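Hi team, as promised in this morning's meeting, here are the two structures we talked about. I've kept the exact order from the run log so nobody has to guess. The first one is mostly here for context; it's the second one we should focus on when we meet again. Sequence first, then the predicted structure tokens.
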Amino acid sequence: MRTVIVKDKSELLRYKKEILDLFRESYGKDLPSDLWDWAYINNPFGNPYAALAFDDGLVAHYAVIPYPLMNKSGAKQKSFLSMTTMVAKTHRKYGLFTKLATLTYDELKKDGADFVMGFPNQMSAPGFKKRLDWEVLQPDIVVSVNREELEEISNLHSLNEIEKSSKLVVNLSHTEIREWRLAKPGVTYSWLDSLAYKSYNEEIDVMYYESAADLRRLPAASSYNLLLPANIISDIGTVSFEYMFGGLGLNKEFDPNSVLRQMCLSDVF
């Protein structure tokens, strides 16, 4: 078995077919080609980092993409988003996830990356914490609310305090970040000066807002879906599902609580 570290877009393109084939084998569905291109190749913030394992073909894959967060002064962080982990069914007892992720992080650290972050699911979170030293927060929630409940959320003091205390954000008011993020294939987004959302089936997914007051400017819909910390609401709306967020400091200390989590960060793949 051999491993390869790829950190050049043109080189990664040579492995695209094998990566998409491994995704199909791992998850039982296709990863759209244009979605892969958008995340890995058309990403304007730099090269992805991918660790690949081969044993008569590609048998495991771990990758991160550059996704810059900004601090309060507007300085971009050299931050990377952890993407899909894939291991062929025949090779799932060899510790390849840990090996490939560690190789990726070593290369990132050598090249000056600040931190890596991501949204592990319930199955992968223990591995990220135990084997890769990630700090993973208690789950945030995606809550579905009606218009009256949306207005109630927009007035929550606790939500405003979280926005004020967050030190790192995805700043969609920054043109380059917004134009790439809202160009995700297969999705149509709307942008209303500091507010981004997508509409479907009379529902709205709230992707980004700079202040809770922005929520009041959303158009009418049957329901609104927001990613929120679980501890700021009690009986408002219906919880649709949970998101866990975490990460690992590389050349900087990383506190996941310092990041303002919204759907524009979580809903990449």
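And here is the second protein, the one for discussion:
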Amino acid sequence: MQDKRNTSRVRPATLGVAVPFLTLLILGACAPQPTVAPVVPEALPAMAWDHQGSHTDAWTEATMDALQTEGAALLSEVPGDIGTWCPGYVEAAPRQRAAFWAGLLSALARFESTWNPQAVGGGGKWFGLVQIAPATARGYGCDADSGSELTNGAENLECAVRIAAKTVTRDGVVAAGGGGFAADWGPFASAEKRREMAQWVSSQSYCRNQVSP
């Protein structure tokens, strides 16, 4: 006959493990969870078109992005006349250098189109923020190479970055002697307009002693 007297005294082997495990689960649920700091987007650098409205942020972002790709050659270039335009450029970090080139384009857009992305000049020859001719855009291999595409602010500026990357590195100057920007944009041929553009961009934080934009 089977002896059942000791059956109630046998404890399952897992019970001793389960109790402390459950306790740990409960304590873990009650413990404060680590706080994950929110990702704060980096502030955009100051541009001459900022006062036109928040829609210009897209222009700034597109220009800064283009300077990391097809305009990357500009970031390693130290033009011979850079002291006129951006005194802090030589020792500037890549983001400050990119901000300078974007800022210069924003200052140029004032004279080319008064910051109007739909502007068409020269009897239908030049289009957009910095007035680029479709033939010029095609010659430099821009993605935007038609009048309708060049009246898109971001695409116009991306093309401008591509053009500047070719001419500035070719000539070794921002605009001196008709080279660099001056090879394609008329406002650089005017001493007064050059002075105003240089005065504006050189006063920005990214051109002064390594202050983050």
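Starting points for discussion:
The chain has one domain: 50-207.
Residues 50-207 form one domain.
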